[in-house]
Amino acid sequence: MRKLLAANWKMHFYPGEIKPLLNELITHWKKAEWGAHPTVLFPPMIYLREVISYLQDTPLQVGAQNGYPGEFGAFTGEVSMAQIAACGAQWVLVGHSERRQYFSENPTLLRNKLVDAQQRGLQVIYCIGETLSQRQGGETFAVLRQQIEEVLSKDTKWNSLAVAYEPVWAIGTGINATPDQAQEAHAFIRTLLAELGAPADRLSILYGGSLKPDNAVEIFSQPDVDGGLVGGASLRAETFISIAEALWNSPD
Ligand code: PGA
Hints:
Blueprint: E1 4-8, H1 18-31, E2 39-42, H2 48-54, E3 60-64, H3 81-86, E4 91-94, H4 97-102, H5 107-119, E5 123-128, H6 132-136, H7 140-149, E6 161-165, H8 179-195, E7 205-208, H9 213-220, E8 227-230, H10 237-248
Parallel strand pairs: 1-2, 1-8, 2-3, 3-4, 4-5, 5-6, 6-7, 7-8
Helix pairs in contact: 7-8, 9-10
Bound molecules: 2-phosphoglycolic acid (PGA).
């Protein structure tokens, strides 16, 4: 089963706003036929422990949006991958375009993060995607190849990796990739992963970028789109639930 759904809450929610949303999701996931399929929530770090304990004994899993390589040390403001794992999180995001763009995260750091996270037992969603000018300049495939090859290698633990294709021009803009654009990029990514020695047929490749209830069915119907990393539409139970329904009702 390659299908996977993830909610990236980014820098949203104040204390008190989270439990009502979690309650709605828990109720729905417990009663839905597909509720046992893997769904991961990525809350802001400050709520990580609270969300993990609240979701115990539910089908929903939890991950961190970011983490720093290592165990502990003098890195003011950072939270280590080891601390995240010790808190009971199962997943971490690495390489999100907002981290690359606003926090200048470079390939060497991303590689260290990914390797360290996997060593600590975390599963990683590694995010890649081209900017608008790169797409317009015909560089999409070259950029995807570079982002894959500079961070993943034959030593990557493939059984704890998912990849998210998130075109930067689609993130938070309301403009999603067309189903054909998504399929083309996903198929290319799967080929690249196979070249690196990954069991590419078994790896989840998620689409992210303005996923909404009204585009999810078509995007998820593409054969190489295995799920979604949802930002804005994951902040409300109603929209996240209908995206989940679109995924779990899509063909395998
Ligand atoms: P969006 O964000 O769904 O709000 O476009 C997706 C993401 O950044 O993961």
